[in-house]
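Methods, example record. To illustrate the input and output format used throughout this study, we show the complete record for MarR family transcriptional regulator. The sequence lines were provided to the predictor; the line carrying structure tokens was produced by it.
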Amino acid sequence: MSDLTPTQVHVLRAVAENRLYEPSSMTPALAFTAENWAALEWLETQGFISRFTRYARPDYTLTPKGHEAL
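The corresponding predicted structure is encoded as:
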């Protein structure tokens, strides 16, 4: 986790704990600021998380690399 910024760690933990959205809702639980969006995109492009579609919305899950980082 040493090369990750505090924002990237915060977003990675939100993905790990399934806290991007409120339960059973499309309401974001994580404040989707420009900084958080950039961290989410960076984590995906670097292979820490992968994107899938659930309930007609994009969602993310940790990859093995993401689990190792935490």
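Annotations derived from this record:
The longest helix spans residues 34-45.
The two ends are 6 Å apart (CA to CA).
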